[in-house]
Hints:
The complex is a heterodimer of chains A (342) and B (377).
Chain A: H1 9-14, H2 21-35, H3 37-67, H4 74-80, H5 98-112, H6 119-124, H7 127-131, H8 137-171, H9 177-207, H10 211-240, H11 247-261, H12 265-277, H13 290-298, H14 306-312, H15 314-337
Chain B: H1 19-31, E1 53-62, E2 65-75, E3 80-85, H2 91-98, E4 106-111, H3 120-126, E5 127-130, H4 142-152, H5 157-171, H6 186-198, E6 204-208, H7 216-233, E7 236-241, H8 244-250, E8 253-258, E9 261-266, H9 268-275, E10 280-286, H10 293-302, E11 307-311, E12 320-324, H11 330-343, E13 348-354, H12 358-369
Helix pairs in contact in B: 4-5, 5-6, 9-12
Amino acid sequence: MTAPAAPLPTERRERSVPHAGWMVVARKEFADHILSARFVVLLLILGAVAAVPLYMTADIIRSAASDASGGQAIFVALFWFTPPLPEALGQQGTLPSVAGFFGLVAPLLGLSFAFDSVNGERSQGTLPRLLSQPIHRDDVINGKFAAGLSVIGLVVAAIVGLIAAFGVLRLGVAPTPAELLRIILWVLVTIVYVAMWLAFGMLLSVVVRRAATSALVGFGFWFAVTFFGGLITGLIGGFFAPISGSIEQQFRNNAAQETLNRLRPDILYAEASRALLSPQVTDVSTPATVGGYEQAAQRIPSLLSLDQSFILVWPQVVALVAVTVACFALAYVQFMRQEVRA
Amino acid sequence: MTSPAGRPIRKRVRTPRPGSEQAARHAVAADSGVATVPRARPSLDLEPNGAPIRTRGLTKNYGDLVAVDDLDLEVRAGEIFGLLGQNGAGKTTTILMLLGLTEPTSGEARVTGLDPARHPLEVKRRVGYMPDSVGFYTDLTGRENLRYTARLNRMTDADTEIAIDDVLDQVGLASRADDLVDTYSRGMLQRLGIADALVKDPDVLILDEPTTAIDPIGVVEILDLLRSLVRDRGMAILLSSHLLNQVQSVCDRIGIFAAGRLIGQGTLDQLAGRFGGAHAHIEVAFEEIDESATERIASVLRGIDGVSAVSPGRTASAPWSVTVASSEAEAAVRRRLPVVAAEHDLLLVSLRPVAPSLEEIYRHAVARTLPADGGVQ
C-alpha cells in the first residue's frame, strides 16, 4: 500500500499472537483488579464478615455433633445454621448464617468491580484510544465482564475454601461427597448472584457518565433492595392480597405475597442457598391451599438428595441467570450504541 | 438519530451554497491535482489511485446537526495533511468515520484501500490514531500502557519490547518510560500518545491536536519526527490542529474546515491564491527618515495607482505596510514603487511582497464561507 521504503511493517504484523481481543482486555482488567486496593479490602471484609457467624456456628455444631446419631449433613450446617446472638448481648435473636452474610455482602463485591468499568475509561480518556485498536467494540465490555467474573469466582471460592478448611479443623468432621457437591453448587449459584450485581454495575457504568454517581446509584439500589425491599413488597402485597378472609383465601394470598417477594433477587438467592445447602429443606414456598398445608404437616421429615434439592430451586436459579443475562445484554446494547466521544 | 436514507431531515443551519462557490471549490480541487469530481460519482473502488485516505461525499448528521457535510478528501502516501478548523467544525467526527468508530450517514471512505465501516479491524490495524486529549491508565507506567496497545494489536512479546523501546526513544520519553503515567505532564502524555499511535507500526497516522500541550522546543522535535516518518517510511499523516503556524510549518497540504464542510484544500500557495483575500500586501522600508517625513511618505505611497491603504511601521525605520486593492495590481505597484521613491528622493532599504499567513488565509476563508449569521453555534 505505502511506499516500499517501510521496513517490512506487514511482517511484524502477520506474526500475530492468537489472542482474541476480549482476552487481552480481560487479562489486563484481571491484573488491574487483583492488584487494586479494593480487591484486598473486599477480601478482608468478606472474610471477616463470614468469620463471625462461622465461629459461633462451629461451637454449637460441635456440641450437637457429638451426640448426633446419624451425623447426616452436619458439615453443610456450617453454612446455613443461624447461630443465636451471644448471651453477652442480653438480647434474643439470631445472627445471619454464613450463607446469609454472603447474600448480604455479595452485591457489594459485584458492584465494586463494575461500577466504574466503562465510565472510568471515559473519564480517563482511554476509551477512544482503546476502541481505535483492532478489536471489536464488544471485546471491551466482554473482556471486562469476563475479568470481573473471574475475580469474583476467585474471591468466593477462596473464602468458601477457607471456611471449609476451618470447618474440618474445628468440627473434626470431613464433608461427605454429597455435601461437597452441595457446597460446589452453592458456590456456583453464589457466583451467578454476584455476577448479576456485576452486570448491573456494568450497566450503570455504561449509562451513567460519572463513576461516583454510578457507585452511588448502585449501592443505593443494593441498600434499598436489601433493607427496604421487604417493606415495599410487604406494602404492595398487603394492599392487593391481604391475609384476611376465609382460610382458603388467606393461604392463596400468602402464596401471592411470596411470589411477589421473589421479584427481589436477594430472596431468590436466599431460597436457592437454603435448599441447596441443607437437605432438610423440602419446600421453599408455603402451601397455597389448606389441603397442601395439611399434607405438608403430615409429611415425615426427611432429607432430600442433591438432585431433588436442586430441582426445588431450579426456577430461582434460572431467574437469577436470566436477570444477569438481561442486565448484561442491556449494558452491551447501550455500549454498542453509544458514541465514542464523551 | 439519523434520518432514513434519502430523506434528509437536517435543518439548514447556514444558507445554501451558491453555485459559484461550488464551481470555485472544484477549481481548487483541480489545482491541487485532485481530479475534478463529476456530478455522477462512481464508487471509490473504481478509481484505485493508491491514496491511503480518500473520502467521497462523506456526510454525518447528528439529528438536525450536520457534523460533516459532503466531504471529499484525499491524503496521499508521503505527505502530511493538516485539517484546520474551529472547535466543532467536524474534524474529530471526520477522523472517527475514517477509523470506523462512527458510521457515516452517507458517502464513503477508503483508508488503505478499505472501507472503514465494513472492515474496521483491518483499518484500525493499519492506522495509528491519537485522539484529542489522549488519556492513559494512570496506575500503569508509560511502558505498560504501550504494551497493552501492542497486545491489542496482537504483536508478539518480543516484537512488542523492541517496538516500545523504539517509539519511546523517538518521542523522547525513554528516560521516563518506567514511571507511572500519573506523574506525567500534559506534554509528556501527548508524546506518549504519539508513541502509542506509532507502536503498531502503522501505514497511516491520524493525530487529533497532537501538539497543543507540548512546549515549543518539544513541538519542533515532534514535527521533525513526523517529517522523518513521512520521508523515510512513506507514511501518510493526517493531523488536525488549530495551531496555525505549526500546521503551516509542517503540512504539505492543508484543508480548511468550517461548519462541517471542507471549504478549501491544497498547498499553502494554492490556498493563498484562493483565499488570500482581495488585498495584497507589500512591505517597504526607507532609510533614515525622521518623524516629520512620515506624512510625506504616506502621501507619496497613497499616490501610487492601486494602493488602497498605507500604514507606517511602529518605529521610524520599521517597514511600512502597503495594502493593494486587488492582487492583480500588486505587481504593478511593486514595479512602480522604486520609481516613485527615486522621484521623491527616498532611499529604499527593502521591498517585498508579503505572502498571506495561514492565519490570514484561514480567517478569510471562514469569513467568506460562513455568512454573518454563522453556521456554528
